[in-house]
């Protein structure tokens, strides 16, 4: 199912409705187009509960959210790039949300919630990493990762540490390894709570998991594709279950605790996928209309339905909240601005802008 893109005619550059008493702080790297030109200056001015809106452009900075609950929204990962890492910590930052941003590399673990922060949400982000680190390092309370692309460079995609007070949930997320190597897994770490994985797609890993904690891992409606050399599902806690998933292209046999799953064989399920690794701006992971795509349609867990109330498709575009292309945030953004009359100081201005907004989350 294609993500929806609505074209809007608006009279101002950015607008939104937020909870009472919260402030929206606008940021743009283009001089004069917003009150703040860097994310850090907006962060310093923000109070807990505020929203920071990032206009299209590139931001090169790194810092930590410490003691504030914030919602940071970018215009979508195709137009909003954050070069740098972001850490989130302290209990007062609980409930922080990051969305609609591309993080090409952080110089460290790119997104790093840790310490006693809880209930962090990372959604609609495309996150890569500096070689040897990881896109996500999760060592805190509950974490929700939705509609993301995680690309590992000589590393695993995500570390799941002592997730306290609840679980970590991955939904409609791509786990991608840019260079296959048996020593790297999609998910690694001594999980301290249940890890849930719904409608995700795993690409180019030889070893899928290295999760060594006691709590179980639960996976539904996932696709494992393009395996590297010496493929294995790796290490999972006793009692872990993966059901209604699909794998192929050199995949090992399903373990005993993997049931009701589809073996795709050599049937590529995707519209356009380069077999070396997922390529941003090139690969299309929608299900194709032939071969493996048909096998993955309506093949999901019976009680998890797609938006059209049919049984869930497997992979990132299935389920009740399918992945949003380009990470378009649930917030109006103007991408073009036209003034259709000549003006001088004191004149009225006729402005027409076109923009977009993602589906309600």
Account of the protein in words:
- This protein is mainly beta and about 350 residues long.
- The chain has one domain: Pectate Lyase C-like (3 Solenoid).
- Helix content is about 5%, strand content about 35%.
- The chain is built from two helices and 34 strands.
- The protein has helices spanning about 40-45, 290-295, and strands at about 5-10, 25, 50-55, 55-60, 65, 70-75, 80-85, 85-90, 95-100, 100-105, 110-115, 120-125, 125, 135-140, 145, 150, 160, 170, 175, 185-190, 195-200, 200-205, 205-210, 215-220, 225, 230-235, 240-245, 245-250, 260, 260-265, 270, 285, 335-340, 350-355.
- The strands form seven sheets. Strands 2-3-6-9-12-15-18-21-24-27-29 form an eleven-stranded parallel sheet, covered by helices on one side.
- Helix 1 links the parallel strand 2 (about 25) and strand 3.
- The longest helix has 7 residues, at about 40-45.
- The radius of gyration is 21 Å and the shape is globular.
- It starts with 5 loop residues before the first strand and ends with a strand.
- Mean pLDDT is about 90; it is low at about 1-20.
